[in-house]
C-alpha cells in the first residue's frame, strides 16, 4: 500500500482506532487531517506521532451537520484537497430495553444515530465534491460486528452500524461512476478505551475467547484493514463489508 501524495481526513483520530489509522496512512505517505471533538491534547499527540509533514488537526462535533460541513471544507483547504475519508468517530452507550426509561431511551437513540450514522452520512455528502475534484477517491466506514451479531445492551449502536453497512452499499453503487469506492470495516472487540472497561471486567476472558485466537483485535489489526480498504487496489471491492473479528462471528 502506497499513499504518497494522498490527502486523508480521519474522524475520531485523537485516540484508539482513528489514531492508529492516521499513523498507518501517514507512514505510507498520506497527509492527514486529524479530527477530534473534545480531546485537543490527544489530537496533538496523534499529530506529533505522524510520519512526514503537512498534517493538520480539525475540531468538530460529528453529530452537528453544520460543524461536519466546516470540518470537511477546512480539512480539504488545509491539505490541498481530499482523496480519502475515514468515518471512524463513534459512540457506544448502553440502554437495555428493560432497564431504561422512555426519556433516556429517546436521548440515547438520538445521540447514537446522529453520531454514528447521520454524522458519517453528512461527512460523505460534504466530502464527495472534493473527491470528485481529485478524480475520485475512497470512503472507509468503521462499522461493527454488532450490526450482525446483535447488541443486547445497546440496540441503537447495533442499528447505527447496520445502517452504516447499508449506506455503504447504496453509496458504492451511486458513486462508482465518479471513481469513488466505499468499503465498510466491521471489527469485533478491539482493545481501545471504548472497550477497556469490558475487557478489564470479570467477563474479559469470555470476550477474548469469543475468538479462537483467544484475544480481541489490536488497533493495528483494524487499521490495516482500513488502510487496505482505502487503497486504490481495493477499488473493485466497493460495497463490501469486511469482517475483522478473529473468527468470533462468521456470517455467510
Ligand atoms: P474510541 O472511543 O477510542 O474512539 C472513538 C472516537 O470517536 C473518539 O476519538 C471520540 O472522540 C470520537 N467521537 C465520539 N463522538 C464524537 C462526536 N460527536 N464528534 C466527533 N467525534 C466523536 O473508540 P474506538 O474503539 O477507537 O472506536 C472507533 C470506531 O470503531 C467507532 O466507530 C466504534 O464504534 C468502532 N468499533 C469499536 C470497537 C471496539 O471494541 N473498540 C468494536 C467495533 C467497532
Strand content: 5-15%
Low-confidence stretches: none
Class based on secondary structure composition and strand pairing: alpha/beta
- Say how many strands there are: 7
Second rung of CATH, namely the architecture: 3-Layer(aba) Sandwich
The order of strands across the largest sheet is 3-2-1-4-5-6-7
What string gives the helices and strands in order? EHEHEHEHEHHEHHHE
Counting copies of identical and different chains, the oligomeric state is single chain
Task: Give the cofactors and ligands.
Answer: nicotinamide-adenine-dinucleotide
Most strands sheet: 7 strands, parallel
What is the CATH topology assignment?
Rossmann fold
How far apart are the first and last residues' alpha carbons, in Å? 28 Å
Helix content: 40-55%
Mean model confidence by pLDDT? 98
What is the helix tally? Answer: 9
CATH class: Alpha Beta
Total individual domains = 1
Q: Note the overall shape.
A: globular
Radius of gyration: 17 Å
Verbal overview:
By secondary structure, the chain is α/β, with parallel strands linked by helices. The protein has one domain (7-243): Rossmann fold. 47% of the residues lie in helices and 14% in strands. It has nine helices and seven strands; from the N terminus they run βαβαβαβαβααβαααβ. It has helices spanning 16-27, 40-49, 65-79, 102-133, 146-149, 155-175, 193-200, 204-208, 219-230, and strands at 7-10, 31-36, 56-59, 84-87, 137-142, 180-187, 241-244. A seven-stranded parallel beta sheet has the order 3-2-1-4-5-6-7, sandwiched between helices. Strand 4, helix 4 (102-133) and strand 5 form a beta-alpha-beta unit. Helix 1 crosses helix 9. The site of nicotinamide-adenine-dinucleotide has 27 residues, from helix 1 and helix 7.
